Automatic annotation (TrEMBL), chains A, B, C:
Keywords: Signal. Residues 1-23 form the signal peptide. This is Uncharacterized protein. Gene3D superfamilies: DsrEFH-like. The keyword Ion transport does not apply. It comes from Tistlia consotensis USBA 355. InterPro entries: DsrEFH-like, Sulphur_relay_DsrE/F-like. The lineage of its organism: Bacteria, Pseudomonadati, Pseudomonadota, Alphaproteobacteria, Rhodospirillales.
Length: 157, 157, 157
Protein backbone atom coordinates (compact mmCIF):
# COMPACT_ATOMS: atom_id res chain seq x y z
CA UNK A 1 0.00 0.00 0.00
CA UNK A 2 2.79 2.35 0.91
CA UNK A 3 4.44 1.73 -2.43
CA UNK A 4 1.16 2.36 -4.25
CA UNK A 5 0.74 5.72 -2.50
CA UNK A 6 4.26 6.68 -3.45
CA UNK A 7 3.51 5.83 -7.07
CA UNK A 8 0.26 7.79 -6.91
CA UNK A 9 2.10 10.82 -5.47
CA UNK A 10 4.76 10.56 -8.15
CA UNK A 11 2.13 10.36 -10.88
CA UNK A 12 0.32 13.38 -9.46
CA UNK A 13 3.52 15.39 -9.42
CA UNK A 14 4.28 14.37 -12.97
CA UNK A 15 0.81 15.51 -14.03
CA UNK A 16 0.99 18.81 -12.19
CA UNK A 17 4.53 19.75 -13.25
CA UNK A 18 3.61 20.85 -16.79
CA UNK A 19 0.66 22.86 -15.44
CA UNK A 20 3.00 24.72 -13.09
CA UNK A 21 5.38 25.33 -15.97
CA UNK A 22 2.47 26.51 -18.11
CA UNK A 23 1.40 29.05 -15.50
CA UNK A 24 4.77 30.73 -15.84
CA UNK A 25 5.30 31.02 -19.59
CA UNK A 26 8.81 30.35 -20.80
CA UNK A 27 10.85 33.43 -21.57
CA UNK A 28 12.27 33.55 -25.09
CA UNK A 29 15.69 31.95 -25.03
CA UNK A 30 18.74 33.91 -26.06
CA UNK A 31 20.77 31.89 -28.54
CA UNK A 32 24.44 32.57 -29.04
CA UNK A 33 25.25 32.81 -32.74
CA UNK A 34 27.66 29.97 -33.48
CA UNK A 35 30.68 31.26 -35.40
CA UNK A 36 31.54 29.00 -38.31
CA UNK A 37 35.09 27.86 -39.00
CA UNK A 38 37.39 29.42 -39.93
CA UNK A 39 36.79 31.87 -37.10
CA UNK A 40 36.74 35.50 -38.21
CA UNK A 41 39.83 37.54 -37.34
CA UNK A 42 42.12 40.29 -38.49
CA UNK A 43 43.92 37.94 -40.89
CA UNK A 44 40.76 36.28 -42.14
CA UNK A 45 37.90 38.73 -41.77
CA UNK A 46 34.33 37.93 -42.65
CA UNK A 47 33.52 39.40 -46.06
CA UNK A 48 29.92 40.53 -46.35
CA UNK A 49 28.10 41.99 -49.32
CA UNK A 50 25.03 44.13 -48.69
CA UNK A 51 22.77 45.33 -51.50
CA UNK A 52 20.88 48.61 -51.92
CA UNK A 53 18.39 48.39 -54.77
CA UNK A 54 15.60 50.53 -53.33
CA UNK A 55 15.17 54.30 -53.33
CA UNK A 56 13.05 54.17 -50.17
CA UNK A 57 14.89 56.24 -47.56
CA UNK A 58 13.61 54.24 -44.60
CA UNK A 59 14.71 50.98 -46.20
CA UNK A 60 18.11 52.44 -47.07
CA UNK A 61 18.57 53.54 -43.48
CA UNK A 62 17.75 50.04 -42.29
CA UNK A 63 20.31 48.56 -44.66
CA UNK A 64 22.96 50.93 -43.32
CA UNK A 65 22.05 49.91 -39.75
CA UNK A 66 22.97 46.36 -40.69
CA UNK A 67 26.47 47.46 -41.63
CA UNK A 68 26.85 49.04 -38.20
CA UNK A 69 25.44 45.98 -36.45
CA UNK A 70 27.83 43.70 -38.30
CA UNK A 71 30.86 45.77 -37.25
CA UNK A 72 29.56 45.79 -33.69
CA UNK A 73 29.05 42.03 -33.73
CA UNK A 74 32.34 40.94 -35.26
CA UNK A 75 34.52 43.83 -34.17
CA UNK A 76 35.59 46.35 -36.78
CA UNK A 77 38.88 44.57 -37.59
CA UNK A 78 37.29 41.18 -38.15
CA UNK A 79 34.86 42.03 -40.91
CA UNK A 80 34.96 43.65 -44.35
CA UNK A 81 31.68 45.06 -45.57
CA UNK A 82 30.91 46.15 -49.11
CA UNK A 83 27.64 47.85 -49.94
CA UNK A 84 26.75 47.56 -53.62
CA UNK A 85 24.02 49.80 -55.02
CA UNK A 86 22.30 49.63 -58.38
CA UNK A 87 19.04 50.67 -60.02
CA UNK A 88 16.88 52.89 -57.80
CA UNK A 89 19.33 52.23 -54.93
CA UNK A 90 21.88 54.51 -56.58
CA UNK A 91 20.14 57.56 -55.08
CA UNK A 92 21.83 56.62 -51.81
CA UNK A 93 25.31 57.26 -53.20
CA UNK A 94 25.01 60.64 -54.92
CA UNK A 95 26.03 63.93 -53.26
CA UNK A 96 22.34 64.85 -52.97
CA UNK A 97 21.63 61.58 -51.14
CA UNK A 98 19.21 61.78 -48.18
CA UNK A 99 21.72 59.62 -46.26
CA UNK A 100 24.91 61.38 -47.37
CA UNK A 101 26.19 62.10 -43.86
CA UNK A 102 25.66 58.52 -42.72
CA UNK A 103 27.53 57.19 -45.73
CA UNK A 104 30.39 59.62 -45.18
CA UNK A 105 30.56 58.41 -41.60
CA UNK A 106 30.47 54.73 -42.59
CA UNK A 107 33.24 55.33 -45.15
CA UNK A 108 35.42 56.53 -42.28
CA UNK A 109 34.74 53.23 -40.54
CA UNK A 110 36.16 51.37 -43.51
CA UNK A 111 32.91 50.29 -45.13
CA UNK A 112 33.19 50.14 -48.91
CA UNK A 113 30.50 51.61 -51.13
CA UNK A 114 30.21 50.72 -54.80
CA UNK A 115 27.90 52.26 -57.36
CA UNK A 116 26.73 50.88 -60.70
CA UNK A 117 28.09 52.47 -63.90
CA UNK A 118 25.25 51.06 -66.01
CA UNK A 119 22.64 52.72 -63.80
CA UNK A 120 24.53 56.03 -63.93
CA UNK A 121 24.68 55.85 -67.73
CA UNK A 122 20.98 55.02 -68.06
CA UNK A 123 19.96 57.83 -65.70
CA UNK A 124 22.47 60.37 -67.10
CA UNK A 125 24.41 60.77 -63.88
CA UNK A 126 28.16 61.27 -63.74
CA UNK A 127 30.81 59.71 -61.46
CA UNK A 128 31.34 63.32 -60.26
CA UNK A 129 27.90 63.09 -58.67
CA UNK A 130 29.04 60.35 -56.30
CA UNK A 131 29.84 61.10 -52.66
CA UNK A 132 33.59 61.40 -52.23
CA UNK A 133 35.05 58.03 -51.31
CA UNK A 134 32.37 56.05 -53.13
CA UNK A 135 33.70 54.08 -56.11
CA UNK A 136 31.83 52.45 -58.95
CA UNK A 137 31.95 49.39 -61.16
CA UNK A 138 30.51 48.75 -64.61
CA UNK A 139 27.60 46.62 -63.42
CA UNK A 140 26.71 46.46 -59.73
CA UNK A 141 24.90 43.16 -60.22
CA UNK A 142 27.97 41.53 -61.82
CA UNK A 143 30.12 42.70 -58.90
CA UNK A 144 27.73 40.87 -56.57
CA UNK A 145 28.03 37.71 -58.67
CA UNK A 146 31.84 37.75 -58.79
CA UNK A 147 32.30 38.52 -55.10
CA UNK A 148 29.94 35.70 -54.15
CA UNK A 149 32.07 33.36 -56.27
CA UNK A 150 35.10 34.70 -54.40
CA UNK A 151 33.54 33.76 -51.05
CA UNK A 152 31.74 36.92 -49.97
CA UNK A 153 28.47 36.31 -48.14
CA UNK A 154 25.53 38.01 -49.86
CA UNK A 155 22.57 39.45 -47.99
CA UNK A 156 19.82 41.66 -49.27
CA UNK A 157 18.72 43.23 -46.00
CA UNK B 1 7.30 21.32 -115.08
CA UNK B 2 6.43 18.48 -112.75
CA UNK B 3 9.55 19.17 -110.69
CA UNK B 4 8.71 22.87 -110.50
CA UNK B 5 5.26 22.09 -109.14
CA UNK B 6 6.75 19.82 -106.49
CA UNK B 7 9.09 22.60 -105.42
CA UNK B 8 6.17 25.03 -105.31
CA UNK B 9 4.17 22.63 -103.15
CA UNK B 10 7.10 22.12 -100.82
CA UNK B 11 7.59 25.85 -100.49
CA UNK B 12 3.91 26.33 -99.77
CA UNK B 13 4.02 23.67 -97.06
CA UNK B 14 7.11 25.25 -95.54
CA UNK B 15 5.33 28.58 -95.46
CA UNK B 16 2.16 27.18 -93.94
CA UNK B 17 3.80 24.97 -91.31
CA UNK B 18 4.64 27.78 -88.89
CA UNK B 19 1.11 29.15 -89.24
CA UNK B 20 -0.33 25.77 -88.29
CA UNK B 21 2.00 25.59 -85.31
CA UNK B 22 0.97 29.10 -84.35
CA UNK B 23 -2.69 28.16 -84.36
CA UNK B 24 -2.03 25.65 -81.59
CA UNK B 25 0.21 27.45 -79.10
CA UNK B 26 2.58 25.30 -77.07
CA UNK B 27 1.50 24.69 -73.49
CA UNK B 28 4.00 25.75 -70.83
CA UNK B 29 6.16 22.77 -69.94
CA UNK B 30 6.28 21.47 -66.40
CA UNK B 31 9.87 21.05 -65.30
CA UNK B 32 10.77 18.70 -62.50
CA UNK B 33 13.09 20.41 -60.01
CA UNK B 34 16.35 18.45 -60.09
CA UNK B 35 17.46 17.60 -56.55
CA UNK B 36 21.16 18.28 -56.05
CA UNK B 37 23.46 15.78 -54.39
CA UNK B 38 23.58 14.91 -51.60
CA UNK B 39 19.88 14.12 -51.77
CA UNK B 40 17.86 15.56 -48.90
CA UNK B 41 16.77 13.09 -46.25
CA UNK B 42 16.12 12.62 -42.57
CA UNK B 43 19.84 12.26 -41.85
CA UNK B 44 20.88 15.10 -44.13
CA UNK B 45 17.99 17.53 -44.38
CA UNK B 46 18.06 20.63 -46.53
CA UNK B 47 18.79 23.64 -44.31
CA UNK B 48 17.07 26.78 -45.51
CA UNK B 49 17.24 30.29 -44.13
CA UNK B 50 14.37 32.67 -44.82
CA UNK B 51 14.52 36.36 -43.95
CA UNK B 52 11.81 38.72 -42.70
CA UNK B 53 12.94 42.33 -42.87
CA UNK B 54 9.68 43.99 -43.80
CA UNK B 55 6.77 45.06 -41.61
CA UNK B 56 4.31 44.69 -44.49
CA UNK B 57 1.74 42.11 -43.40
CA UNK B 58 1.04 40.86 -46.92
CA UNK B 59 4.73 40.35 -47.58
CA UNK B 60 5.21 38.60 -44.24
CA UNK B 61 2.36 36.25 -45.06
CA UNK B 62 3.96 35.46 -48.40
CA UNK B 63 7.26 34.66 -46.69
CA UNK B 64 5.49 32.29 -44.30
CA UNK B 65 3.81 30.59 -47.26
CA UNK B 66 7.26 29.76 -48.57
CA UNK B 67 8.07 27.90 -45.38
CA UNK B 68 4.94 25.80 -45.85
CA UNK B 69 5.71 25.19 -49.53
CA UNK B 70 9.23 24.05 -48.68
CA UNK B 71 7.96 21.53 -46.13
CA UNK B 72 5.39 20.31 -48.65
CA UNK B 73 8.04 19.97 -51.37
CA UNK B 74 10.76 18.20 -49.39
CA UNK B 75 8.61 16.44 -46.82
CA UNK B 76 8.68 17.73 -43.27
CA UNK B 77 11.46 15.37 -42.13
CA UNK B 78 13.82 16.25 -44.95
CA UNK B 79 14.13 19.98 -44.42
CA UNK B 80 15.07 22.34 -41.60
CA UNK B 81 13.77 25.87 -41.96
CA UNK B 82 14.91 28.85 -39.93
CA UNK B 83 13.18 32.20 -40.30
CA UNK B 84 15.35 35.09 -39.16
CA UNK B 85 13.74 38.48 -38.58
CA UNK B 86 15.40 41.83 -38.01
CA UNK B 87 14.65 45.53 -38.38
CA UNK B 88 11.03 46.23 -39.30
CA UNK B 89 10.50 42.48 -39.76
CA UNK B 90 10.59 42.01 -35.99
CA UNK B 91 6.91 43.02 -35.77
CA UNK B 92 6.11 39.52 -37.03
CA UNK B 93 7.53 37.86 -33.92
CA UNK B 94 5.98 39.83 -31.05
CA UNK B 95 2.88 38.70 -29.18
CA UNK B 96 0.91 41.50 -30.85
CA UNK B 97 1.99 40.26 -34.28
CA UNK B 98 -0.67 40.31 -37.02
CA UNK B 99 0.48 36.80 -37.93
CA UNK B 100 0.83 35.39 -34.41
CA UNK B 101 -1.44 32.40 -34.98
CA UNK B 102 0.35 31.38 -38.16
CA UNK B 103 3.71 31.56 -36.43
CA UNK B 104 2.44 29.52 -33.48
CA UNK B 105 1.21 26.94 -35.96
CA UNK B 106 4.50 26.89 -37.90
CA UNK B 107 6.44 26.49 -34.64
CA UNK B 108 4.45 23.31 -34.04
CA UNK B 109 5.63 22.07 -37.44
CA UNK B 110 9.22 22.45 -36.33
CA UNK B 111 10.03 25.71 -38.09
CA UNK B 112 12.53 27.80 -36.14
CA UNK B 113 11.98 31.52 -35.62
CA UNK B 114 14.78 33.81 -34.53
CA UNK B 115 14.52 37.47 -33.58
CA UNK B 116 17.22 40.14 -33.49
CA UNK B 117 18.41 41.38 -30.08
CA UNK B 118 19.87 44.57 -31.56
CA UNK B 119 16.53 45.53 -33.09
CA UNK B 120 14.74 44.84 -29.81
CA UNK B 121 17.21 47.02 -27.94
CA UNK B 122 16.92 49.88 -30.43
CA UNK B 123 13.13 49.76 -30.39
CA UNK B 124 12.85 49.22 -26.62
CA UNK B 125 11.19 45.84 -26.84
CA UNK B 126 11.83 42.99 -24.43
CA UNK B 127 12.39 39.27 -25.05
CA UNK B 128 9.17 38.84 -23.02
CA UNK B 129 7.34 40.44 -25.94
CA UNK B 130 8.26 37.55 -28.23
CA UNK B 131 5.73 34.86 -29.10
CA UNK B 132 6.36 31.79 -26.98
CA UNK B 133 8.73 29.44 -28.77
CA UNK B 134 10.49 32.21 -30.68
CA UNK B 135 14.15 32.64 -29.70
CA UNK B 136 16.52 35.50 -30.42
CA UNK B 137 20.15 36.15 -31.22
CA UNK B 138 22.28 39.25 -30.72
CA UNK B 139 22.26 40.29 -34.38
CA UNK B 140 19.87 38.68 -36.85
CA UNK B 141 22.06 39.69 -39.78
CA UNK B 142 25.15 38.02 -38.27
CA UNK B 143 23.15 34.83 -37.73
CA UNK B 144 22.37 34.83 -41.45
CA UNK B 145 26.06 35.26 -42.27
CA UNK B 146 27.24 32.44 -40.01
CA UNK B 147 24.56 29.98 -41.07
CA UNK B 148 25.37 30.61 -44.74
CA UNK B 149 29.01 29.84 -43.96
CA UNK B 150 27.78 26.65 -42.28
CA UNK B 151 25.97 25.58 -45.46
CA UNK B 152 22.47 26.91 -44.99
CA UNK B 153 20.82 28.16 -48.18
CA UNK B 154 19.74 31.78 -47.92
CA UNK B 155 16.66 33.17 -49.62
CA UNK B 156 14.98 36.52 -49.15
CA UNK B 157 11.51 35.62 -50.42
CA UNK C 1 72.14 77.14 -45.01
CA UNK C 2 71.46 76.04 -48.51
CA UNK C 3 70.53 72.59 -47.28
CA UNK C 4 68.22 74.03 -44.62
CA UNK C 5 66.36 76.09 -47.24
CA UNK C 6 65.89 73.00 -49.38
CA UNK C 7 64.43 71.15 -46.42
CA UNK C 8 62.14 74.10 -45.65
CA UNK C 9 60.95 74.18 -49.24
CA UNK C 10 60.31 70.45 -49.20
CA UNK C 11 58.35 70.72 -45.95
CA UNK C 12 56.29 73.57 -47.34
CA UNK C 13 55.46 71.55 -50.45
CA UNK C 14 54.51 68.56 -48.33
CA UNK C 15 52.19 70.75 -46.27
CA UNK C 16 50.57 72.39 -49.28
CA UNK C 17 50.10 69.24 -51.33
CA UNK C 18 47.02 67.98 -49.43
CA UNK C 19 45.45 71.44 -49.59
CA UNK C 20 45.86 71.49 -53.35
CA UNK C 21 44.36 68.00 -53.55
CA UNK C 22 41.50 69.14 -51.32
CA UNK C 23 40.72 72.06 -53.57
CA UNK C 24 40.16 69.63 -56.41
CA UNK C 25 37.97 66.89 -54.93
CA UNK C 26 38.89 63.36 -55.96
CA UNK C 27 36.74 61.92 -58.71
CA UNK C 28 35.08 58.64 -57.85
CA UNK C 29 37.38 55.84 -58.95
CA UNK C 30 36.21 53.30 -61.48
CA UNK C 31 36.92 49.81 -60.24
CA UNK C 32 37.22 46.93 -62.63
CA UNK C 33 35.14 43.98 -61.43
CA UNK C 34 37.59 41.16 -60.78
CA UNK C 35 36.40 37.96 -62.45
CA UNK C 36 36.70 34.98 -60.12
CA UNK C 37 38.23 31.70 -61.23
CA UNK C 38 37.22 29.71 -63.13
CA UNK C 39 36.79 32.48 -65.69
CA UNK C 40 33.36 32.52 -67.34
CA UNK C 41 33.26 31.23 -70.89
CA UNK C 42 31.18 29.36 -73.42
CA UNK C 43 32.12 26.01 -71.86
CA UNK C 44 31.71 27.19 -68.29
CA UNK C 45 29.21 30.04 -68.27
CA UNK C 46 28.26 31.94 -65.14
CA UNK C 47 24.93 30.62 -63.88
CA UNK C 48 22.82 33.29 -62.24
CA UNK C 49 19.46 33.02 -60.56
CA UNK C 50 17.27 36.12 -60.33
CA UNK C 51 14.07 36.19 -58.29
CA UNK C 52 10.77 37.96 -58.94
CA UNK C 53 8.54 37.91 -55.87
CA UNK C 54 6.92 41.32 -56.21
CA UNK C 55 3.92 42.40 -58.28
CA UNK C 56 5.21 45.99 -58.50
CA UNK C 57 5.68 46.74 -62.20
CA UNK C 58 8.54 49.19 -61.66
CA UNK C 59 10.42 46.69 -59.52
CA UNK C 60 9.82 43.92 -62.05
CA UNK C 61 11.20 46.13 -64.81
CA UNK C 62 14.29 46.79 -62.73
CA UNK C 63 14.82 43.07 -62.20
CA UNK C 64 14.58 42.48 -65.94
CA UNK C 65 17.14 45.23 -66.55
CA UNK C 66 19.57 43.25 -64.44
CA UNK C 67 19.24 40.29 -66.77
CA UNK C 68 20.13 42.55 -69.69
CA UNK C 69 23.05 44.10 -67.82
CA UNK C 70 24.42 40.68 -66.95
CA UNK C 71 24.35 39.55 -70.58
CA UNK C 72 26.01 42.82 -71.59
CA UNK C 73 28.69 42.42 -68.93
CA UNK C 74 29.61 38.77 -69.50
CA UNK C 75 28.70 38.46 -73.14
CA UNK C 76 25.62 36.48 -74.06
CA UNK C 77 27.48 33.18 -74.55
CA UNK C 78 29.27 33.31 -71.21
CA UNK C 79 26.29 33.49 -68.88
CA UNK C 80 23.12 31.52 -68.22
CA UNK C 81 20.36 33.43 -66.51
CA UNK C 82 17.27 31.92 -64.94
CA UNK C 83 14.51 34.13 -63.58
CA UNK C 84 12.34 32.34 -61.03
CA UNK C 85 9.02 33.90 -60.04
CA UNK C 86 6.69 32.95 -57.21
CA UNK C 87 3.98 34.49 -55.07
CA UNK C 88 2.93 37.96 -56.24
CA UNK C 89 5.83 37.89 -58.73
CA UNK C 90 3.90 35.42 -60.88
CA UNK C 91 1.92 38.27 -62.45
CA UNK C 92 5.02 38.96 -64.53
CA UNK C 93 4.77 35.62 -66.34
CA UNK C 94 1.12 35.44 -67.40
CA UNK C 95 -0.11 36.41 -70.86
CA UNK C 96 -1.75 39.51 -69.34
CA UNK C 97 1.58 40.55 -67.81
CA UNK C 98 2.41 44.27 -67.93
CA UNK C 99 5.91 43.25 -69.08
CA UNK C 100 4.88 40.54 -71.56
CA UNK C 101 6.76 42.02 -74.52
CA UNK C 102 9.98 42.42 -72.57
CA UNK C 103 9.80 38.83 -71.38
CA UNK C 104 9.13 37.56 -74.89
CA UNK C 105 12.17 39.53 -76.04
CA UNK C 106 14.38 38.20 -73.21
CA UNK C 107 13.25 34.64 -73.98
CA UNK C 108 14.65 35.13 -77.49
CA UNK C 109 17.97 36.09 -75.92
CA UNK C 110 18.09 32.74 -74.14
CA UNK C 111 17.00 33.87 -70.69
CA UNK C 112 15.03 31.18 -68.88
CA UNK C 113 11.81 32.02 -67.04
CA UNK C 114 10.30 29.67 -64.51
CA UNK C 115 6.97 30.02 -62.73
CA UNK C 116 5.73 28.45 -59.52
CA UNK C 117 3.12 25.70 -59.72
CA UNK C 118 2.10 26.13 -56.09
CA UNK C 119 1.33 29.82 -56.62
CA UNK C 120 -0.70 29.01 -59.74
CA UNK C 121 -2.70 26.40 -57.84
CA UNK C 122 -3.39 28.73 -54.91
CA UNK C 123 -4.46 31.57 -57.20
CA UNK C 124 -6.44 29.34 -59.60
CA UNK C 125 -4.30 30.09 -62.63
CA UNK C 126 -3.47 27.54 -65.30
CA UNK C 127 -0.19 26.75 -67.08
CA UNK C 128 -2.08 27.86 -70.20
CA UNK C 129 -2.03 31.37 -68.77
CA UNK C 130 1.76 31.51 -68.98
CA UNK C 131 3.53 33.43 -71.73
CA UNK C 132 4.68 31.03 -74.43
CA UNK C 133 8.21 29.85 -73.69
CA UNK C 134 7.86 30.24 -69.93
CA UNK C 135 8.04 26.95 -68.04
CA UNK C 136 7.08 26.15 -64.45
CA UNK C 137 8.17 24.01 -61.53
CA UNK C 138 6.23 22.70 -58.56
CA UNK C 139 7.68 25.19 -56.06
CA UNK C 140 9.66 28.20 -57.25
CA UNK C 141 11.33 28.54 -53.88
CA UNK C 142 12.58 24.94 -53.93
CA UNK C 143 14.00 25.48 -57.42
CA UNK C 144 16.03 28.37 -56.00
CA UNK C 145 17.31 26.16 -53.18
CA UNK C 146 18.36 23.30 -55.45
CA UNK C 147 20.02 25.50 -58.06
CA UNK C 148 22.03 27.27 -55.36
CA UNK C 149 23.21 23.86 -54.15
CA UNK C 150 24.17 23.12 -57.75
CA UNK C 151 26.34 26.25 -57.90
CA UNK C 152 24.03 28.90 -59.30
CA UNK C 153 24.57 32.36 -57.85
CA UNK C 154 21.42 33.76 -56.26
CA UNK C 155 20.51 37.42 -56.29
CA UNK C 156 17.26 39.08 -55.34
CA UNK C 157 17.63 42.33 -57.28
Amino acid sequence: MRRLRLIQAALLLALLAPLAAGAQPARAAFKETVLSDPQPGFDDPRRILLQISTSDEREINNILWNAVNLQKFYGIDNVKIAVVAFGPGMVALYKDSPVRERIESLLKYGIEFLGCGNTMETTHRSPDDLIEGVDYVQAGIAEIVERQLDGWIYIKP
